[in-house]
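tokens incoming
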């Protein structure tokens, strides 16, 4: 049995990370390790939507109609939800944003929102994986988890199209701020975590 050894690291200043990448690139898996290592609050907008869907809230009902098709949920809904999630953790040492921002509007509003709290994005780490590999991963995940948006190739393709059209422009948005770092997202889970940890420690 391989034991995962998480060494807790206390960075001297607040770090706010964006985990970036196409659907299935491993953001959620890696966010959990990064959260433990640096004692951060992990906010996954997809998880918050899925939680609301499971509770049949108004937000859940609205989000479901978009998520089922693999479309992005409208910005105004997603941004409001994200801001309230951040405000739930006034004493956080930092945040991992997983699946947010996904549009330029979301990124601009996130910058302004954090600025109003004397906070800022420290870096964006993109998990780089080819689409062919991602399709196999997503279909497998759909079978295991029952996630509807992972089970159908046309919905998966629509999510890639949403990413390529609306989310990929954020690469240049964060490059212009010198905050964009790409990490190879193929390999053992531990290997990928170490690549992320090395990037964080080199750049913060
Ligand atoms: P994820 O779990 O990050 O793959 O997200 C699942 C789905 O939730 C996406 O396909 C979108 O429909 C919705 N979603 C999650 N995050 C966002 C976001 N930042 N903006 C718009 N829609 C989102």
């Amino acid at each position: 049995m391989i034991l995962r050894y998480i060494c807790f690291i206390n960075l001297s200043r607040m770090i706010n990370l964006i985990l970036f990448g196409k659907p299935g690139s491993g953001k959620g898996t890696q966010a959990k390790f990064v959260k433990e290592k640096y004692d951060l609050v992990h906010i996954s907008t997809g998880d918050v939507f899925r939680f609301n869907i499971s509770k049949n809230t108004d937000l859940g009902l609205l989000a479901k109609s978009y998520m089922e098709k693999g479309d992005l949920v409208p910005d105004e809904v997603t941004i409001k939800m994200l801001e309230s999630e951040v405000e739930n953790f006034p004493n956080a040492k930092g945040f991992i944003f997983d699946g947010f921002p996904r549009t330029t509007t979301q990124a601009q509003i996130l910058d302004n929102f954090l600025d109003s709290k004397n906070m800022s994005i420290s870096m964006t780490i993109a998990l780089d994986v080819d689409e062919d590999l991602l399709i196999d991963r997503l279909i497998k995940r759909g079978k295991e988890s029952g996630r509807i948006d992972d089970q159908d190739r046309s919905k998966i393709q629509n999510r890639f199209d949403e990413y390529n059209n609306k989310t990929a422009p954020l690469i240049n948005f964060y490059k212009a701020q010198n905050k964009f770092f790409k990490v190879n997202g193929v390999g053992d889970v531990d290997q990928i975590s170490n690549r992320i940890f090395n990037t964080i420690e080199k750049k913060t």
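note: Residues 15-183 form a domain with the Rossmann fold fold (CATH 3.40.50.300).
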